[in-house]
Amino acid sequence: MEMMKLEGLENIQEATSKLDRASICDLKIDDNGVLKDVKKFKGIYNNTKGEFCASVYPYYNLVQHKDFFDSFAVALDKLNIKFKMSLSQTGSRAFCDIDFINNNIKFDKLNEEFMTGIRLMNSYNKSTGLHVMPRYTRLACTNGMILTRNEKTVSIKHHSKLAKEIESFVEKKINEIINQNEDLQKWVSESMKDSCEWLVCCKILEKLITPLKHREEVLKRLKISIITKIDKKTKKKEINYVLDNEEDSNKKFNRWEIYNAVTHYLTHGEQITPHIENIFHKQAEKLLVTPLIKLPQAKIGV
Predict the structure, then answer these.
(1) To 5 degrees, how large is the angle CA 14–CA 16–CA 20?
(2) In terms of DSSP H, where are the helices of the chain?
(3) 3-class DSSP state of 81
(4) Helix, strand, or coil here: 231?
(5) Do the Cβ atoms of 246 and 227 come closer than 8 Å?
(6) CB environment 75-110: b (16+ within 10 A), e (fewer)
(7) Pair 295, 207: CB distance under 8 Å
(8) Would residue 268 be called left, alpha or beta, if left means φ above 0 and alpha means ψ between -120 and 50 degrees?
(9) Which of 90, 130, 192, 278 has a CA positioned 20 to 30 A from the CA of residue 44?
(10) Distance between CA 71 and CA 157 in Å, rounded?
(11) pLDDT given at position 302
(12) pTM of this prediction?
């Protein structure tokens, strides 16, 4: 399902109605040709796709993608907060990005401005619970930023009481995310002061972004190329990093620059699924909150 960008409660509710729906079903097992009930478990069945998703305990609270996302849209509408919403789903997971209109935060000392928002996640296969995370968009380059190491981030398991009473905490969570941004300012400020040599940057990214095709795209944004060759003796692939401009041999990058190279790719790169994007946002966040000296580095040329 392609990303849909929406405004207006009616349009949003119409769009969420097109998301997959699921139901709790009884499970049976074929015991030598005899169908028997599985008493201690139930199943989640994706009615839209006609697929079995997962086995669960009977007290599992199934939350529909539509109901979860609509609860935030309705609350924002009641609070008279203007917003835009984007929806996507992949497999059994669904993602919802909310951007608040006219609620930007500006850090004058850092010369940075961000649009605030929320990312919501839900799944039918137990791969994720109900997730509520602060989301920011850096306006200088429209990079999306998802922050999970934040006290405003919430992950609710489907068997918890909150999953059944989701509407009771939505308004409180919205107000927290809109009004508290101290963590972001602290992390951005510290990351701007922490730099390393360009090759060290490559070593760090090799640990954080292990798939070569994704790491190559990130490094392009730092004007670094990857050259690969196969060692004739060992038959192993060798990876070398080369600056596009040889005159930049003393080039250094701070954590903020490296972080933005990753988020730029995740936001503007092609063929990035919401699931892959979410995984790499968690890796990128390590760059934002961890001093370079504490980040793991790969051994290159060995």
Answers:
(1) 125
(2) 9-16, 65-78, 161-164, 167-179, 182-193, 198-208, 212-220, 255-268, 274-289
(3) coil
(4) coil
(5) no
(6) bbbeeebebbbbbbbebbbbbbbbbbeeeeeeeeee
(7) yes
(8) alpha
(9) 278
(10) 17
(11) 42
(12) 0.87
